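[audit] Reproducing an earlier prediction to check determinism. Same input, same settings, fresh worker. If the tokens differ from the archived copy the diff job will pick it up downstream; this log only records the rerun itself.
[audit] input (128 residues):
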Amino acid sequence: MKRRSLFGLLHVGVLMPVPALAAWLSGQPLIFPSLGPSAFTLSFGQKRPDARSVIGGHFIGAICGWWITYLIIAHGLTLSDLSPPLSMDGLRIAASGVISIAFIAGMMMLFKAIHSPACATTLIVSLG
């Protein structure tokens, strides 16, 4: 058990610096909270996903959340800037989140890159 824990610690320690380095080099926010569960699942999960599903799922999540729903529906809005009840901006940001989840579900199935933490990626980007 201790050997597996040490291996998992080292594995997560190798996985997470990749997006951290890419974020640092590019100046872009490429470290998402959903990458933590992905790294953990790859290291400790009973049924480990393949790299294609992990990378593909997060890539699809970013595309669905950012380029498709956020830019078209809620551009310029963020969930942290609370809108008044029943406002059009509030409806747009909520719709962006809902549509992005529906979209990612279909796209992950289509491309056979199913990775549930990627749903958090699409929500993070679709909500600004």
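[audit] rerun output stored. Observation attached for the diff report: The radius of gyration is 16 Å.
[audit] end
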